[in-house]
Design brief:
The structure is a single chain. With 69 residues, the chain is of the alpha+beta class. The protein has one domain. The chain contains 2 helices and 5 strands, in the order ββββααβ. The chain is globular.
């Protein structure tokens, strides 16, 4: 999955697979997490958020199942 670089102190890039509703987040420390069942609207809101880290903690982290890649 292609990831788009973002401006964030903790997140370096974000990728999304709309067909499978998989959100990939690459952190500045090199770790990558895949969140499943994420609707496209959530991804769009995430990408448009002023603070990616704040959005991640408030709307994604404890709502969707994830695994470290």
């Amino acid at each position: 999955m292609e990831r788009i670089p973002v401006s964030s102190s903790n997140i370096s890039a974000i990728g999304y697979d709309a067909e499978n509703q998989i959100l990939e987040i690459e952190f500045t420390n090199g770790s990558v997490y895949a969140y499943s069942g994420v609707p496209s609207g959530e991804y769009e809101s995430f990408m448009n958020a002023d603070s990616k880290g704040r959005y991640l903690h408030a709307n994604i982290k404890n709502r969707y199942s994830f695994m470290k890649l």
